Amino acid sequence: MQKLDPRGRKVKILATVGPASRDPEMLRKLFRAGADAFRVNMSHGEHATHAETIKAIRDLEREFYRPVAILCDLQGPKLRVGTFKDGKAVIRHSGHFTLDRNPEPGDETRCELPHPELFGLLSKGQRLLINDGKIRLRVIEADDDRILCSAEVGGVISDRKGVNVPDAEIPIPAMTPKDRRDLAFAMEHGADWIGLSFVQRPEDLAEARKLMGGKGALCAKIEKPMAVRRLDEIIEMSDGIMVARGDLGVELEPQEVPPLQKKIVNATRLKGKPVIVATQMLESMIESPAPTRAEVSDVANAVYDGADAVMLSAETAAGDWPEEAVTIMHKIAVQVEQDEAYLERVRLLDTPPDPTTADALSHACMTIADTVNIAAITVFTGSGSTARRVARERPSVPMLVLTPSIRTARRMCLLWGAHAVATKDIGSFEEMIAKGKRMALRHGFGQAGSKLIALAGVPFGTPGSTNLLHVVTLMGDELEKHEG
Fold it and tell me: Which of the residues are catalytic?
């Protein structure tokens, strides 16, 4: 067992695994460089490959005695055009182009749109975006068999390019047969989080939740403008939120995405659930060993906004510099969190406590840590809800989360400020205080003379019973006494 010091930052790093990083030695490098959780993208690769990746990550947990979260990201439905006679065609700027139900290969005037649910749904003036928005069509007229469009932006269109429909709620479920198979695989292999794509409405989360059978946590990816209209309901139905800026950027104007990112982060934080900012954070590092200044600012802004986690996509999955990308992201986060204005910025969002004992005590933890020189807040929790309440307050000191559940400990790897340890359950107040002190010393949170806050619920093992806050002082010899 190797000892790994605490990260020294509160925001978490989620790194995507792919061809550039799935080798166990590279995964070890990414973990040591600062990755707290790994994303397995179910859009690419075979189940056998993903199973090897998951095993390698679990091996890291045992090697470093630290929980690591695995997020399996489902592909979701993809709308695509059909095929073309020559594999591609050119749509003229300002010309007309028709999408129809005829399966014959297309040309520069028409092609098949093999999605019957879109016919009769679209109306005049609505947009169709093809190939990540490189081609932009505006509907002139539409019926049950064809959609006549004007090309606002033309260009080369080729076989099976993706289609985005930003102006309509599309009546298709968020999960395809492939997603159901992938979800079953993820649950079987102990995934901690499931990323659900194509969420448009809160009902989209119901099927995934049912299939998960109470295991794992559900992260709704906000990538459709339609989802933003019902954002609060979607947050309520999920365990966490991902701001999928790449897809949002296709369906919205570029300048609309930054304020929307802040809105989603704030709305999720208010509910006390983890929020991940994703896509193109250090995009240039796919090919370059150093990021642009703009990318550094982008990551820094997400940290200043109080996001729970920042994510690397192709940078670690397929890039030339995966370890360097994680290292840079870690350095940016540490630098921002050392800024004397950081805490003030993070707390610009007012998160008033709900009228419950647990919320009042969580708020008190923040106040005590601001008033007294506290080394850490030790939180004893079974489900993780107490830790989420404390994190919602964005306290000035780290949170040592002690839980008897390895599943809960892993889920905490995407929660702001949490350093989770899976440990044996406790049976009494005295045992709780003694264990909290030993764990703080063992994991590098304090030394002789340091003060800790202990937060728990009595009777122990009763979910939702947080009712006890205690401030203790470390003597420094608790480990020796216990082992002696």
Answer: 39, 80, 221, 279
